[in-house]
Amino acid sequence: MTDQTPSRTYSGSCHCGAIAFDVELDLAGALKCNCTICTKLGAVWAFAPKTKFKLTSGEAQQGDYQFGKKHLHHRFCTACGVESYAEGTAPDGTASVGINLRSIEAIDVDKLSPRPWDGRSK
Ligand SMILES: [Zn+2]
Q1: 50: number of Cβ within 10 Å
Q2: Ligand 1 mean position, distance from CA 82 (Å)
Q3: For position 5, what pLDDT does the model report?
Q4: What is the structure's pLDDT at 2?
Q5: C-alpha R_g of the chain
């Protein structure tokens, strides 16, 4: 890998701060999805292996929402309602997390160029 696609560690949280995490992300992989939940969330996502994700606060504060094929666990804060990440298994079998980049204050989502992802027809 060259440093053209740098990964760095970001800290994110839900709105009230009960749920907080550190995650190593490469923002070159950012995407926006047209599926039914992403449309309502307005989320922009980046994905990482779960080994690069560390929940630093809020284990007991998390809800777990699933729908459709139930491949993903949508993790939201049961106090403020914000979904800051989701977890599931990548096609190659790796445990993975999808981070709602809007939950990371250091990231200006409007400066990214997320790829469209046709999640609605998957
Ligand atoms: Zn919260």
Answers
A1: 15
A2: 6
A3: 61
A4: 45
A5: 14
pTM of the full structure: 0.91
Report how far ligand 1's centroid is from the alpha carbon of 100 (Å).
14
Which residues is 62 bridged to in the sheet?
77
The series of mean pLDDT values per 10 residues for the chain, 122 residues long, is 70 98 95 94 96 97 94 96 96 95 96 92 82
* Amino acid identity for residue 20 in this structure: A
Give exposure, 14-47, as e/b (b: 16+ Cβ within 10 Å).
Answer: beeebbbbebebebeebbbbebebbeebebbbbb
> From its phi and psi, is residue 12 left (phi > 0), alpha (psi between -120 and 50) or beta?
beta
**CATH architecture group of domain 8-108:** Beta Complex (2.170)
> What is the CA(7)–ligand 1 centre distance, in A?
26
